[in-house]
């Protein structure tokens, strides 16, 4: 490398490491503390850039407007009862509904998923009771993202140079498979947190199998294909993030979660019946309805890649509001980081269809996405790559 170029390279490297150090050093304070301090104006880091603010607002107002606007599109609702009813014709209709929802929207509500409402209610209760603890108590479980300890209690650190933050604190931990979970870092209060959450993880894994079978069938694949391509019972991980969104004095300026697609294969969302989730459909943000006993399912990037884009990874975001704390339980189904190569499945290319995504491990996909976010102008995708 010529001296001038290598000098520039080193300089640039220094700039980048300086920025990273700045980001890492900036330990985000808990949003709950800010919210409870009674401030009437939110700090600058939480104010979204002008381009994102046009259609922000109080989640309750937005949900009310959506409900009045009967003509507006609503997320599909798919009843899973027929998958196990023994009625083959009804089962096929359900598979087709799932295929359509995953292809057109990349998101849906599912009902009759098989997890008893009592267990879902208990999960909501133990998560809320944990977040009801004083912040000092929750700090005992604080994660340390800088040293790679990602599980635990946290708030978003800025991962871009502008230092933008989200109006949210969270608790993140693995809930399945059982052999890989580490309950020593899970909340010890309330006492039944571990029992209830571990049971939910087990039961949700059954739902994941069911959905991946139907979605495999929807692509014309053997029913076990997607599950095994994602690691199967041993290696597919279920990671739970309890998102805690305090009330916000200026919901028209902030976001609980900024617009993103999930890196997972599927994500499940359950919430405390406070609106906030919006999905991008047909050029507009649509606020998800709160449907009792339903789970929301997102298609994430990993499934979009395996399906060569036939299933869509949905763009979504979270609004906040002035009235009520919102809590959501997001469970991400993720392949192992290094051992599986995510790429469009061969069976889907057999007719000469070109691959829309280059092969990448899950970790490489995460790094690529981060790089693209921080260098929008530098990320020239390879031929055929749309993601
Ligand atoms: O709170 C929600 O409804 C969505 C959360 C979310 O998108 C996420 O945690 O990735
Ligand atoms: Fe998400």
TrEMBL record:
It comes from the Eukaryota. Keywords: Dioxygenase, Flavonoid biosynthesis, Iron, Metal-binding, Oxidoreductase, Vitamin C. SUPFAM superfamilies: Clavaminate synthase-like. GO terms for molecular function: dioxygenase activity; L-ascorbic acid binding; metal ion binding. Pfam families: 2OG-FeII_Oxy, DIOX_N. This is Fe2OG dioxygenase domain-containing protein. Residues 236-335 form the Fe2OG dioxygenase domain. Its cofactor is L-ascorbate. One of its GO terms (biological process) is pigment biosynthetic process. The keyword S-adenosyl-L-methionine does not apply. Belongs to the iron/ascorbate-dependent oxidoreductase family. It comes from Zingiber officinale (Ginger).
